[in-house]
Amino acid sequence: MNEVCDLDELEINESMEVGRADIETDAPDVAPHAFRIVLTGGPCGGKTTALSTIADYLRSLGTQVFMVPENATIFANGGAGFPVHSSQEHQMCWESSRILCQMGMEDSFIRIAKSSGRPTVILCDRGTMDAAAYMDNQRWSELMEQMKWETDMIREERYDAVIHLETTAIGAEEYYTLQNNECRRETPEEAAALDEKIKQVWKGHPHVEYIDNSTDFPRKIIRVVEAICRILGMHAPTSSGFFKNFRISRKFKEVMPSLCLRFEEFFVQTDFLKNSSADNSQSVRHRKQRDHTSELSLYTHSTR
User: Fold this and answer.
1) Of the segments 48-62, 117-131, 275-289, which one has the largest average pLDDT value?
2) Under 8 Å CB-to-CB from 130, ≥6 apart: which residues?
3) Is pTM beyond 0.90 here?
4) Which of 9, 134, 148, 186 shows a CA-CA span of 20 to 30 A to 62?
């Protein structure tokens, strides 16, 4: 539902524009920042859904979002999964290769983001330290020494924040499943133990948010979005889905450049679906924006 304060013609969504302004800069000599955020946690914690929801929400605000996939899954799907029954040397080679690949992917995404000239949020499906949860302390220390890495270098210095989604095997056991991920093998007990290990290896990072199972799953995902918005200094979606809109005079638009105010003009249309009800409102939001050479349209499906 939208409340519109009619001041004149040009419509601006206040909550969206204020949120976006917080991560934009007009300084010509400052490279745009790439915010690197890790989503981690035990198996079946909701990372996949959370990543998609966060990306959709931030993109609806006009924010550039890149998503770095979990490369352990990429390795497995390519036939180079973890060599469980092989030698320790083979296993160490796999772990170091996977971490190198992950860092290479992250660094490439960062370079692309900075070259775009736009502030960017880079969402990482797991981070470098997750590997430590799958190894004992001695083997992890050997790997770090072999690769000449330091813990703070691959943990604190690589990521701006970490979001830990607790596995459903803790407190929501009835929802724990292996069916939605072919690479998942852990029993609920193993998943709970792994969740705790992952929590411990990321503990040294200064900005960690823990999202437990104290609410239902839809609310859990909303809490993830709220945590990301707090980290970025952006407005989170309200629990009621209520937005304030204002119309401002086009005369004011003409003087905005002289006031050093940055603005963007776009078209927004929200269509409510026929199967919506008072308890389950579904809508499709169309956001269209033109520049000098092209037109970009973004469609977002929302359920409240």
Assistant:
1) 117-131
2) 40, 198, 201
3) no
4) 9
